[in-house]
Amino acid sequence: MPTTAPAFADATASDSALRRFLHGLPGVDTVGLEARAASLGTRSIKTTAKAYAIDLAISMIDLTTLEGADTPGKVRALAAKAVHPDPTDRTTPRTAAVCVYPDMAATAAAALVGSGVKVASVATAFPAGRAALDVKLADVRDAVAAGADEIDMVIDRGAFLSGRYLKVYEEIVAVKAECGSARLKVIFETGELSTYDNIRRASWLGMLAGADFIKTSTGKVGTNATPANTLLMLEAVRDFREQTGVQIGVKPAGGIRTTKDAIKFLVLVNETVGEDWLDNHWFRFGASSLLNDLLMQRQKLSTGRYSGPDYVTVD
Question: What is the uppermost EC class here (predicted)?
Answer without folding.
Answer: lyase
